Amino acid sequence: MPKRALIVIDIQNDYFPGGKWTLSGMDAAADNAAKVLDAARSAADLVVHIRHEFPTAGAPFFIPGSPGAEIHAKVRPLPSEPVVLKHQINSFRETNLKDVLDRHGITDVVICGAMSHMCVDAATRASSDLGYACTVVHDACASRDLEFNGVTVPAAQVHAAFMSALQFGYAKSVSTEQHLAGK
Questions:
Q1: Which of 46, 116, 162, 179 is deepest in the core (most CB within 10 A)?
Q2: pLDDT tens per residue across span 123-164
Q3: Which residues does the annotation mark as catalytic?
Q4: Could you tell me which of 49, 50, 88, 51 has the C-alpha nearest to residue 66?
């Protein structure tokens, strides 16, 4: 029987309005992540929180020891839930995340958080590459406008592009409603 874990990635204060790196739709994504988190706790699934800190105080956001680097209150970890500290985009790189998942016999991961185009993307691809069956709860993730070669790409399009790529080859993509309904 599959064993499932919820990985909540980087839902930290700096991504919210008033933070150092505000994401588009972060409040709504966090509200959905909180629903997914409540369901995981009710199902007795393993919950792993990922918290990103840049290694230096000169970082643009997630400065070590700052309030902005703290996990947001909407998805605050319980004392029994592991929190993996990372300094890279990929939640598996130079962390104990794989060890935590393997120690609990996890076969399936559900992923939500931020940013869709960076840390969620990297963790989903790595999870799949490591053999975990992956589900991304797309409306429990957030992104921001990006710029490339003088072209601004709106956050909704950035998010859609990354979710479609993950769905194509790495993960099942579902809404919060679908996830809570077991679809």
A1: 116
A2: 999 999 999 999 999 999 999 999 999 999 999 999 999 999
A3: 119
A4: 51
